[in-house]
Amino acid sequence: MQNSSAQPERAPGKRKRNFAILFVVLLLIAAGCLAWYLLYARYYETTDDAYVSGNLVTLTPQIAGTVTQVSADEGDFVEKGQPLVLLDPSDTQIALQQAEAELASTVRQVRGLYSTADNYRAQVAARAVTLQTARSDYARRQKIFSTGAIAAEDLAHYRDAVTSAESDLAAAQQALRTNQAMVDDTVIDNHPEIKSAVATFRQRYLDNARSTIVAPVSGFIAKRAVQLGMRVDSGTTLLSIVPLDQVWVEANFKESQMNTMRLGQKVTLTADLYGDDVEYHGTIESLGIGTGSAFSLLPAQNASGNWIKIVQRLPVRITLDPHDMDKHPLRIGLSMFARVDIRDADGQLLPQQTVAQPRFTTDVYQNALDQADQVVAKILHDNGQPAAARTTAR
């Protein structure tokens, strides 16, 4: 009987001890959470609303034509300057040949203007000599007219000869001035008519060169829409090129998370594609200039009566370490998890200086006019000199 009565008395004590243990465990958990927040969590902001973004270079023709060759398909890697699409060059070649002939003809016509000017100068000099002779003859006859050695009719003829010589000289001078107005202060290379013909030739040369469409950047083909035999116009989308070495991450943080975010802060990221074992390192390059809803196709009408407050998100652009990209390449649109280290809050919210160098540039279109100018120089040389002079020069 004594044992049965003692057991209920010990039960409340055991229950109190269990509650005490549970309280201590909860207290330790709370202390651990508080320590984790104070020592680690408060210095980081995280989001899983982050995605890989990049440049999508759209390839479009600059002239109209019929597609005769497509050199790459989706997923293929292409180098900058590599020919990708060829258009039928028949029309552009004919136009180029016509422009070349017109330039050569114009050079010869302008060269004729300079020759005509020299001819008119010679005519003016000859007319001036004729006038001087006529005046001298008239002056001598006028002196002997009073002695009766010459008839009045003959003297009138000499006076008419002076008048005629004066008219011939004036006509020759006017023709010279008219011709000089077309060639004064110019040489063959910079004559207006030749410059116009050269501009036409250069345009036709560019049109012919643009029948071969090249890759402006190195990257991977995506969204190919061009097909053989397709008739394309200027500006038609043919395909896209994605340079995967120029991708970045766009992380959308809540506005309440961005109080201490600054440019240049370090970011650690993981991709769902590779899992948590693969980490990427990045840097905040820019903080959003506006929320997604502000730039949407149909912006929210917050001034209306049915307004509901919604926490907005701002896009944060994060550049990635190229070494991480080399080991584990990313694709556009992949999901990412971003963790920003906000301990260093000395950076700027917005950039204070303009961009010193162009962010993106290509030089694949710079050589076409240089080659055209070489052809122009040859045409000017071949048609701007007399045959004898060219033979001597050779």
UniProtKB/TrEMBL annotation:
Q: Does the keyword Chloroplast apply?
A: no
Q: Does the keyword Transmembrane apply?
A: yes
| Keyword annotations from UniProtKB, A to Z | Cell inner membrane, Cell membrane, Membrane, Transmembrane, Transmembrane helix, Transport
- Which GO BP terms apply? bile acid and bile salt transport; response to antibiotic; xenobiotic detoxification by transmembrane export across the plasma membrane
GO CC annotations, alphabetized = plasma membrane
Q: How does it sit in the membrane?
A: Single-pass membrane protein
Q: From which domain of life does this come?
A: Bacteria
- p-hydroxybenzoic acid efflux pump subunit AaeA-like beta-barrel domain residues: 248-327
Q: Where is the Multidrug export protein EmrA/FarA alpha-helical hairpin domain?
A: 91-210
**Where in or outside the cell is it found?**
Cell inner membrane
**TM region positions:** 20-39
Which family does the record assign? Belongs to the membrane fusion protein (MFP) (TC 8.A.1) family.
> This chain belongs to which protein, by name?
Multidrug export protein EmrA
Query: Which species is this record about?
Result: Phytobacter massiliensis
